[in-house]
Structure formats: structure tokens, C-alpha cells
Design goal:
Immunoglobulin-like; 1 helix; three-stranded antiparallel beta sheet; about 50% strand; mainly beta
């Protein structure tokens, strides 16, 4: 009888662990909405200014996280990265990055939605400018 209880407990714990991060309802990339509120396309920020990063990600099924990248358009150098592994149908992102560029620089903000644990994701991007 003890063995049966022990075995049942182990099975229950395993079921909980595997269920904690499993494949949820299937999501197609086209079903995910990413709205970048700030910065706007073509917006300019002077050196020392805070660049507000605001975005909304929504999906009819559970997503597996999000990521934000700011990088130089010329060479892809990443200047800012933030991400989160979370399971929700929607995310509201509110972050900021300080412009430290010493010359005019074309930048790309890209917001990613992680669709599954197999690396499937979708994204949206805007170009904005850092001024000295």
C-alpha cells in the first residue's frame, strides 16, 4: 500500500511539472497582433533622452513570452535587449532606453512574440533615429 501511495505521488508530481510548460493551443503567426505604440516610425531622440518603449502583444491562444531589441540599422549591433518567458494571451510592455549615441544613428526597435518553445516567433519593427 505504501508503494502505491508513493508511486501515485510521483506520478502526480511529474504530471504537474510537465503541465507547467506544455504546448498550449496552437497559434499561427498571423493570429498574433503586435502593436508598437512608442517610438513611432521616424521619431527622433536627442542624446541623453529616454526613449519610451511601449507595445501591446495579443493572441487568441497562449504565447510563451516576448522580447525587445534595439539595434543599429547599419550593422545590426544590439544596444538593448529585454525579454520574458511568460505564458499569457496578451502582454503590455513598458520599458525605456537612454539614447547615448554620439552621432546620428538609424535604429531599429523590434518586438518579438514567442509562439512556442520550439523557437517559433513573430515580430514587428519600427525605425527611429538617435541624434547627438
Amino acid at each position: 500500500m505504501r508503494f502505491y501511495r508513493f508511486y501515485s505521488s510521483v506520478l502526480l508530481i511529474c504530471a504537474i511539472m510537465f503541465n507547467a510548460c506544455h504546448k498550449h493551443d496552437s497559434v499561427n503567426e498571423g493570429d498574433v497582433s503586435i502593436e508598437i505604440i512608442s517610438p513611432r516610425e521616424g521619431q527622433q531622440f536627442r542624446r541623453g533622452e529616454q526613449v519610451p518603449i511601449r507595445a501591446k502583444i495579443t493572441s487568441p491562444a497562449t504565447l510563451h513570452g516576448w522580447a525587445i531589441e534595439i539595434r543599429k540599422k547599419s550593422n545590426g549591433q544590439i544596444l538593448f535587449v529585454e525579454d520574458s518567458h511568460d505564458h499569457k494571451k496578451s502582454f503590455t510592455l513598458e520599458k525605456s532606453w537612454e539614447n547615448t549615441m554620439t552621432e546620428r544613428t538609424d535604429l531599429i526597435l523590434e518586438v518579438f512574440a514567442q509562439i512556442d518553445h520550439d523557437g517559433k516567433k513573430t515580430s514587428k519593427q519600427v525605425t527611429f533615429y538617435a541624434l547627438p
